[in-house]
Amino acid sequence: MNWFNTILLLLTAFVAVFMQSAFGFTRPLLGAQVDLLPPLVVYASLTGKLTSVALLAAWGGLCFDSLSANPPGVSVLPLFAVGFVIYLKRGLILRDQFTARFVLGALAGAGVPVLTVLLLLSLGQRPLLGWGSLWQLVVMSLGGGILTPVIFWFFDLLHRAFAYRPAAQTSFRPDREIRRGKI
Questions:
Q1: In-domain check, residue 40
Q2: How many domains does the chain have?
Q3: N or C: which terminus of the chain has fewer CB atoms within 10 Å of its end residue's CB?
Q4: Is residue 80 part of a domain?
Q5: What is the pTM of this model?
Q6: How far apart are alpha carbons 85 and 71 in whole angstroms?
Q7: Average pLDDT per run of 10 along the chain, which is 183 residues long?
Q8: Residue 123 belongs to what domain range?
Q9: What distance in Å separates the CA atoms of residue 166 and residue 151, rounded to the nearest whole number?
């Protein structure tokens, strides 16, 4: 992944955090808001370098915390931890498979909020927890699982639109005969 891809990823994270805070797409219907940052972290950790994962976790976490009730920076560590674990094991993951993308997105969608709540509790904060939190965790997990393949499709579309693609054809035809010998 080059710098152009990293900039696209950070810009997408900024727009995603703004969209999920300005427009509650799933909140009125399901009673929980789907987080868009864990699918982006899954994409970055499967396709990019560790610097892209760290930049996305820092930028996305700080943007998310600035628009939420969380203390500044509390979302950075859970996003990076999930991305780092996926980055370490990406050689073993079938990253082109829909099922693998769905499962990783669902695990990241559940892992980031759980780690964030644990971090908030260890900082002495008192987040609102109850039986409704389990429903919110299920919605966030399924939402992350559904959105991860969509994120992969979206970035493939962006790469086809903006990235340089080398020419696939050569000037030599395979059925051409080359004569060797005396001229």
A1: yes
A2: 1
A3: C
A4: yes
A5: 0.86
A6: 24
A7: 84 92 81 91 94 95 90 93 94 90 95 94 86 91 95 91 73 68 69
A8: 3-19+31-160
A9: 24
